[in-house]
Amino acid sequence: MFTLAEENYLKTIFHLEHDSMCEVTTNAIAESIETKPSSVTDMVQKLAEKKMLTYKRYKGVQLTEEGKKVAAGVVRKHRLWEVFLVEKLHFHWDEVHEIAEQLEHIQSEELITRLDQFLGSPDFDPHGDPIPDKHGVLKRTEKKLLSEIEKNEQGVCVGVKESSPEFLQYLDKKKISIGTKISVLGKEFFDGSMIIQVGTEQFFISIKIAENLYVQTS
Amino acid sequence: MFTLAEENYLKTIFHLEHDSMCEVTTNAIAESIETKPSSVTDMVQKLAEKKMLTYKRYKGVQLTEEGKKVAAGVVRKHRLWEVFLVEKLHFHWDEVHEIAEQLEHIQSEELITRLDQFLGSPDFDPHGDPIPDKHGVLKRTEKKLLSEIEKNEQGVCVGVKESSPEFLQYLDKKKISIGTKISVLGKEFFDGSMIIQVGTEQFFISIKIAENLYVQTS
DNA sequence: AATTATTTTTAGGTTTAACTAAAAATATAA
DNA sequence: TTATATTTTTAGTTAAACCTAAAAATAATT
Ligand SMILES: [Mn+2]
Ligand SMILES: [Mn+2]
Ligand SMILES: [Mn+2]
Ligand SMILES: [Mn+2]
């Protein structure tokens, strides 16, 4: 099996590959995982020996099929636990990530099988992120960033890119959650800021907000 | 906070103190935790510096009040998770200990508060062991070992001393679980073996069984 | 009381996963 | 193209938690 540190590296590389759609650099991993590049080099060499990823010096890494499977397993556990915390223990969506970071490393196939059943085999976590199935397959849904929406268009919030407590609390304050309808009333060329309508309220948001909210346009 | 290893040592010493009712030796800890006595000495010196226990060379250790509190916290988490696994995920009572060994180390006050509520603040775990309250207080219930019961007396099974899968599966086979009424029909002086009645069945048990079953005599 | 046996500790070593500092490779700019 | 900047790797340390082997303390026998 894999150590806690190994699992964290695989998961992080998995996320970075999804974001950048190409090889992942040492520095990118170091920043995500909040460690030093030299530590990343060490671990990446270890994971390459274990055939979890391919690694060429100075050229970044790429997960193997096996590596992707292991990583998806960790992501699956993380997101299922987040659902449990919100649905069953009534945590708020900005409180669960930290705890799920620990729970994702509990080793027991049977536990996850039963947890999944107990939760009714959910497809998405509380932040709108898809939950990989038991084989590590992630079903892709089409969603755009709110920042990609044009003036006078509208969409339904289906997820967040960032899931820091700060951002989620901002969304709460603005009454935005998964399922909320958002209309773009105005969009500023210069800085990408927008005027949007949520329910009966209309207000200004910066590009930083718009770039971290996923919406689905029907 | 405490590391996983530190928590395991504190928990183990807590259990040993309860069993032996006096100072706990290095070898006893080593055996329980499946490690070498020299490793125990190292850790015990560290925990003494942290004021979790008192330690005099060659004289064994004793938990401080603070040490007992921390240990009871780990036991509380362990047992609450066991209840969750059995009551909510429908695990069998012989399958939960291993998983709870991992879950007991998840760090989050709030999580345990909510888990406890979710489970209806149970007083006992699936093996009949009492769950410490949030202040680390264990309410003592009077129970005897089945081996202490005399011929023609009877009792209700309220817990197990051992909780290895092998023993629990033996009990299942014999239809003994928490709440089961057991009558002692015969008792052999020489080896402590017994003939007992469970439901309509009567059968022979060795002292090893009788010494690991807790019963309450009304 | 002296010898032997057991328990416990110390000393020194290993592994994992970090770190710092310096060297090497690659990328960017002049 | 050469010089400079950035990224990445290597080399050498550190800390936690384990180990083995040997020494020291305590307990049990003769
Ligand atoms: Mn993690
Ligand atoms: Mn999430
Ligand atoms: Mn443990
Ligand atoms: Mn138990």
Q: Brief overview, please?
A:
Chain A is built from 8 helices and 8 strands.
Describe this structure in words.
2 copies of one chain form a homodimer. The first copy, chain A, has 218 residues and is α+β, with helices and mostly antiparallel strands. Among the domains of chain A are: 4-63, Arc Repressor Mutant, subunit A (Orthogonal Bundle), CATH 1.10.10; 144-217, Ferrous iron transport protein A (FeoA) (SH3 type barrels, Roll), CATH 2.30.30. In chain A, 43% of the residues lie in helices and 17% in strands. Chain A has a 6-stranded antiparallel β-sheet. A two-stranded antiparallel ribbon of chain A has the order 1-2. In chain A, a hairpin with a 6-residue loop joins strand 5 and strand 6. Chain A starts with a helix and ends with a strand. The mean pLDDT of chain A is 96. At the A-B interface, helix 5 and helix 6 of A face helix 5 and helix 6 of B. The structure holds manganese (II) ion (4 copies). One manganese (II) ion (MN) binds next to loops of chain B. The first copy, chain A, binds a DNA duplex (30 and 30 nucleotides) through residues 3, 5, 25-27, 35-43, 45-46, 57-58.
